[in-house]
Amino acid sequence: MPGSSIAEFNTIITMLGMLCATVQFITGFYAFFYKKKKYLIKGNDMIFRAHRGFGGLATAFYLLGLFAGLSGFLGSLIFLGNETFPPLEPTSPSYLIHVIGSFPTMVIILFKTYLSYFHKKTLYRRMKYLGPATFISWGYTWVTAAISYYLRTQPLPTHPKPHAAPLYLLPYEWAWLQILMPFILGFIIGYLIVRKADKIEKKKAAEKSKK
Questions:
Q1: Which of 45, 82, 103, 109 has the most CB atoms lying inside 10 A of its own CB?
Q2: Tens digit of pLDDT for each residue in 141-153?
Q3: Are 68 and 5 in contact (CB under 8 A)?
Q4: Among 86-90, 123-127, 173-177, the range of highest mean pLDDT
Q5: pTM of the full predicted structure?
């Protein structure tokens, strides 16, 4: 993105993935928990297209962020002290919480992605647990990434050269709102989708009752 730092660009990628994951979770929650009819994931065209479309986008954003994160992490290990890569910060709580926590969340998200492409039947049987687990993993990834990014726009003992101030994201003082934003926008989009899907289901039910 023009003028954006690499750190801000990576944070935006994660934010967009969180937004898409939120929409996907809302559509899945509607089918599996609210309606308790898992067939709606395939049977309701609105839910099906939204769940698959936003899930695909979330996966794409996650893989982009994962590539950037692993490249930076491995670069900081292999080329220790090289300013081309982010510094290794083993004494920083925010760094450790984000980096160490990213590995188990990565396993959950990639496992769910693998099932969604290659073992859909297994996925549908485990969706009641994998769906929420994936959403929680996404939430952890986004919140810790955003906190880590915003803290490093200020000088830190472990990161003396701060990132440039956000150009596209909200400023440091509004970091809390930026962290909430993908959840809020994702919920609004998801709500509009399930509202329309619910109207479709009610229309189907009304047509059946007339027969």
A1: 109
A2: 999 999 999 998 8
A3: no
A4: 173-177
A5: 0.89
Kindly write down the DSSP assignment for every residue of the chain, as one continuous string: -TT--HHHHHHHHHHHHHHHHHHHHHHHHIIIIIS--TTHHHHSHHHHHHHHHHHHHHHHHHHHHHHHHHHHHHHHHHTTT-TTSPPP-TT-HHHHHHHHHHHHHHHHHHHHHHHHHH-HHHHHHHHHHHHHHHHHHHHHHHHHHHHHHHHTTS-BTTB-SPPPPPSSSPPGGGHHHHHHHHHHHHHHHHHHHHHHHHHHHHHHHHHHHH-
Domain spans, the chain: 6-210
Asked if residues 162 and 147 have their Cβ atoms less than 8 Å apart, the reply is no
Q: Could you tell me the two tokens for 15?
A: 């934010």
pLDDT(1) > 60: no
pLDDT tens for 177-208 read 999 999 999 999 999 999 999 888 888 777 67
